[in-house]
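Worked example 4.2. Below are the chains of a multi-component assembly; read each line carefully before continuing.
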Amino acid sequence: MGKVVDMNSDMGESFGAYTLGNDQELMAYISSANVACGFHAGDPKTMRETVKHALESGVGIGAHPGLQDLIGFGRRPMEITPEEGYDLVLYQIGALLGMTKAEGGTLHHVKPHGALYNMAAKNKELAMAIAKAVYHLDSTLVLYGLAGSALIDAGNEVGLQTASEVFADRTYQADGSLTSRRSPDALIHDPEQASKQVLRMVKEGKVMTQQGEDIDIVADTICIHGDGAHALAFAKDIHAKMTASGITVQRIKA
Amino acid sequence: MGKVVDMNSDMGESFGAYTLGNDQELMAYISSANVACGFHAGDPKTMRETVKHALESGVGIGAHPGLQDLIGFGRRPMEITPEEGYDLVLYQIGALLGMTKAEGGTLHHVKPHGALYNMAAKNKELAMAIAKAVYHLDSTLVLYGLAGSALIDAGNEVGLQTASEVFADRTYQADGSLTSRRSPDALIHDPEQASKQVLRMVKEGKVMTQQGEDIDIVADTICIHGDGAHALAFAKDIHAKMTASGITVQRIKA
Amino acid sequence: MGKVVDMNSDMGESFGAYTLGNDQELMAYISSANVACGFHAGDPKTMRETVKHALESGVGIGAHPGLQDLIGFGRRPMEITPEEGYDLVLYQIGALLGMTKAEGGTLHHVKPHGALYNMAAKNKELAMAIAKAVYHLDSTLVLYGLAGSALIDAGNEVGLQTASEVFADRTYQADGSLTSRRSPDALIHDPEQASKQVLRMVKEGKVMTQQGEDIDIVADTICIHGDGAHALAFAKDIHAKMTASGITVQRIKA
Amino acid sequence: MGKVVDMNSDMGESFGAYTLGNDQELMAYISSANVACGFHAGDPKTMRETVKHALESGVGIGAHPGLQDLIGFGRRPMEITPEEGYDLVLYQIGALLGMTKAEGGTLHHVKPHGALYNMAAKNKELAMAIAKAVYHLDSTLVLYGLAGSALIDAGNEVGLQTASEVFADRTYQADGSLTSRRSPDALIHDPEQASKQVLRMVKEGKVMTQQGEDIDIVADTICIHGDGAHALAFAKDIHAKMTASGITVQRIKA
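Applying the procedure described above to all four chains together yields the following structure tokens:
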């Protein structure tokens, strides 16, 4: 059987009168949608409509829970206890589960958002709390996390299927972590270089770090940004290159 | 088989540093708990803990969705479309469903809160939207509403089991509606009179209106207030009187 | 002295990651900016930056308080008491007053937003509560309200300077009220007809109602929509036509 | 002239249906009230009523701005930029300034709340941003902060009058900082020992650290907790002991 990879994108981040992203167009090029659940973005109407579009497009539906910080879009780290992490993740997944059931679909995965994603990549206790919340709610859900992170470890430990996520346009450090956004080298601005990096990660399981050495990396799913002028073109390009390389783009098998 | 009645109470209305109600003590005298879902009251931690206590007490767990108005405790009517009602109810029930599943329990019922309850008692379109949200999410849930209200009609119409709710300490009008709180006669202040009224509603299916005539009323479930100095004593008393009259207090059979 | 008129627009309605409106471009064509204060739209950063831009543009700064309903953008009527209206208006004006003082400016006016504006146009008690809140905070502020509304009456009664607002693209009823948005005739879609109507209101103090009769109308200030594809072009056009007719566009003299 | 000290307490922390604290009773024993401004606690009605009570009691009115985290009561540290700190403090002080002006009073001071207070005690840039926000809004306001903290330094640097705050029931480290709440020695549980410590800080400007050495400490104002069963008795006791020692309890002279 040939190689497969998942392409996921954050969706449903509009809120009331505010519109964000190109959800509808992007659906054609991804296999999994991470739907905002109301804490960092997403109102009930947006959530339901996004679930509906994802079902119509045959895209896997995932909960995308975040910190309760609408002004900061869930991007500002906050000191929460593991128990608080457990509860806020459970609440948000449940809300999206309700939407998905009502629309006749099945929830497929969970990917924490923004600061919560980053905190769970390093904080083992928080990662375990999140993994347990997912497992207790529905043990067949797939947990998405940064490749090589504490969240992936935690998911595996509690018995969840996990999906290791890689980034086309971010550079990597020798320990497999992403270069901090505070560093000038954090981003790959050249689309060609970005698609080359991600193709290699998927095909060979390797990435060249900022330190100039190859490391192993698990690339189950590729993060596709939904925002910005070039998001759509980039998604289309990655999708085409994967297909051209004999790699099937499909959601993670739960 | 003897007569049965359900006794329900609003619970889980604490929020963060703020504590409200006597949930723990009250659990012994009721058969169904309506758990606030975060919009008018209730934070994720409070919700999960309330679900846990209800399970330990063998009390039926219900979602208690409200308008998104924490300052007004969901008591201020707001002009929402039926679609907005559908979405906000779905979101909140889902959130509590997640909590309940994670704790190993089963969601039993849904009772709208405050202004949403009152609006759905009279507004047929909103009532239908709420009933559909409940049905689409889980058609085995019981829908609680004011006896004789549009919400009960809507629930029956979409195919849900419904529970007609009566109040011990509220007076009734000739058309079966509650006397408006703006009227000086809205409340029955004498506990004896209140328990007599509710006992008669359950045993005989009759209530004497403010206009001095008896009308028929369906009394599947009694609303027990959780707040206030005498709430606990009153719940205990009603429970004892029901039992003494050969009426079994038990949750609505779904 | 020649005729003068104020042109006002709602501004600062962005929120966190969400951008709304064309504030910067529009500033050149208006004389007064109504700045959202955080309840229906507007975060502290957006508020401060909008105040700064208004000061740089020589535009009068007004508070634009709304109902606490971010999801509904403050457009859904809500049953609040006059006292609640007083308090929420006071809170929001104060917040913007702080921003304005810190930026070295002076607050010029107050215009309620959306549902609050409409409710205060008809509900005399709420209108008085809002007028008193403005007066108690700073009796030199100008109160903006719908021409002929209860809010204008209330402002005059408490001793505030008021500014009667007219709309270019809305049709009027015989009693001077706006045609309800639920009616198909609510809006004037032809820009030429809209600018003719508003020019006549300013120059002659007359408007032709949907019932086909002329009525008197006070036109101190024109509402300029900030949103939508044609907002900027329309504002520019109205401004040019006013100037060409010898009418000076300038903020209300407080 | 004899020694003076200020006694301050957090107030106005109720929210909607939720009541917290013993504000009314406590007013008799303090000289300054820090009024919550809506982000971590306090709704507009509570704010206005607290301001009114403070004015009636002759107590100095201070803004008590916090992080926007109602569920966490503003106690969870959050990574905010200095600019975000500037804006959120400005917004909240302005809101309370509006309330105070409308009630005919004058705003006296600003004391950040909870996590914001602690963050500003150590983070020099955030401290400067807060101090500037206060200064830009009204340069006559007194800035309250932990004795010896970065916030007091920042206040002095921008030209504000500052008030160094001490705690009766917290233990101190050799560098003048408070013992972390995570340490078992953080709190002084014996009321006698607590009042002795605070009396000595005020009279002698000395405190014995956990390391067993005396250090100098500036004690302009004493933090009086408003919550808990013994808060009122403790406030009364401290007030009586100060007076008995010839120390006048009065607000900081602005």
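Take a moment to check your reading of the output against the notes. The beta strands of chain B are 4-11, 32-36, 60-64, 107-110, 142-146, 161-167, 206-208, 214-216, 221-224, 248-249. Chain B touches chain A at residues 38, 43-45, 47-48, 83-84, 87-88, 90-99, 101-103, 133, 136-138 (CB under 8 Å).
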